[in-house]
Amino acid sequence: MNRRDHLKTMLAGLVASIGFIPEANAEKTKQATPVKMPVLFVGHGSPMNAISDNPYTRHLQKLGKQLPTPHAIVVISAHWVRNDTRVMISAKPETIHDFGGFPQALFDMQYPAPGSPALGKQIQQLMAPVNVIGDAKWGLDHGAWTVLHHLYPKANIPVIQLSMNANLTLVQHMQVGAALQTLRQQGVLILGSGNIVHNIPMAQDRMASKPFEWAAAFDELTKEGLLHRNLGQLLATDKRQAQLWQLSHPTIEHYLPLLYTLGASNSTDKVSFPYEGFQEGAFSMRSVLFS
């Protein structure tokens, strides 16, 4: 069975009327914890949020104190896209400053969280027979550490990242997220980091700029899609919305992490939005919590 065929079979239990993948087979995971972790998606926006004090960053700080303390964190970031699927297996991941033109204070920031080679290898086993490559070189990109800096400032929780395979369809990205469901029972927080609306060429100069009408419309449609478990909306099957999708995502990588968290959730999870708002008019900073 090739990789694409296997990914298709992973979604065999999808209930169309519900729109979420049922709880994964717990037999794959022997170790469990009393607390099942939620799944979290956050908009990360500009790297400047790492050193900014604003309503968005304050919500992250508050949220980090409200969530159960995870044993480990798996991040799916918009900034690690490959032509294959990779998982970090480094014990001491570097802080990657994958941006330019920002103040030196941002480049001086470090997030020295430990890695978890064991968790990386477990993910390889959960995804089998899909080939997931262990990557010892990749560190924490700014989609990960600028958010984690506010959520867990002590940087004492093991963190790894899972890459997004550029060759997959939207449905298949969600299926990969479904393979991570059992990790929640072990106290692992699955964190998607991107933006529900992300259009850099249309971004305004001021953080507090009013959102464009098309940006607000897409953000609201996505919110409704999540609340009503409408996969047609969330997987872009309505061709009448093609222009709205193109404006909101000239490239799709910032939307994809939401699909991983969608896949890692299930029909018993309550969907809530710890934060709603925009930055620079073209970046939705909405957070989504499945708990």
TrEMBL record:
Record flagged with keyword 4Fe-4S: no
Protein name, per record: 4,5-DOPA dioxygenase extradiol
InterPro entries: Extradiol_dOase_DODA, Xdiol_dOase_suB
Co-factor(s): Zn(2+)
Claim: NADP is one of the keywords in the record: no
Class of enzymatic activity (EC top level): oxidoreductase
Alphabetically ordered keywords of this record: Dioxygenase, Metal-binding, Oxidoreductase, Zinc
Extradiol ring-cleavage dioxygenase class III enzyme subunit B domain location: 65-273
Family from the record: Belongs to the DODA-type extradiol aromatic ring-opening dioxygenase family.
Gene giving rise to this polypeptide: ygiD
Pfam annotation, one family: LigB
EC number: 1.13.11.29
A molecular-function term among this protein's GO annotations: stizolobate synthase activity
